[in-house]
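Hi V.,

You were right to ask for the full record rather than a summary. Here it is.
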Amino acid sequence: MTVTSDPPTYDGAFTVDVEDYFHVSAFVSSVRPCDWGRFPCRVEASTHKLLDLAAANDTRGTFFVLGWVAEHYPQLVTEIQQAGHEVGCHSHAHQLVYELGADGFRQDLVRARDTLESIIGQPVTLYRAPSFSITSKSLWALQVLREEGFQVDSSIYPIRHDRYGIPGAPVMPHLIETPAGELAEFPGMVFEAGRTAVPVGGGGYLRLLPWMVTERLLGSVRKQGRPLNVYVHPWEVDPDQPRIACSFKSRFRHYQNLRSTMPKLQKMLKRFRLTTMSEVLTTLELPRIPSVIRSSPEAPRSTDTTAAAEVREAVS
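Predicted structure:
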């Protein structure tokens, strides 16, 4: 008699944006890419902390690696892969997509993708934009991603923010039709309270809220029938990183509650069963929405409100 077991049930995806503290968009006015080489790198040690945490909790995840990091620390990418994690692309130089333009975006994307593929020896098909910067101003990037062989994007955050977000965009993973083919979108995670979308469970949102509040909100997301999309950066588990002179807002966003990140992640991985983004997507029937890319990459984009209305209409 053959005994079969049911496949594991997961609560969502555990994702890491592999970048160093001086790469972040909050410091763009203080630190230029040409200056990165003069800062002490800490991304290896910080990423090892996350790899150890995942191993201790029997968790696999998706690591979106910056091309710059891969070029300077190829062994780190190999270690991520050998630990059983999925490798995705986080751009090469951590520039906002809507500031690059279509040609600049493609060049940055291809450089990072080719670097990662040369290290891991297999296709890289998942992408997350720096600072979730695929917005209504840069929806053309979805077509470029598909043209370059990417199958999954996780760059659209359905909130209003001064740097990113498309308010009203779908909160559930879905398929977007582009002129180059379908692309799966795994949006940034929010808790829906009426017509309000509350970001939760990743980055500064994880650090700022008490764990008890985050735990309840994550549980509510699951009760709403949606998978979790947890994200963290290696520098968020490095409270002793060098301090960079910046504005009060940037200082608050980057440094607030850094010492709380690791304890919260430990509780999260014990409370929720997380895995790679691709594995989560294989368990879902993704709704399809028509293309919202209506013009060439060089043409002006619609406003956030218009883009969100188009998406809402498509999935209703």
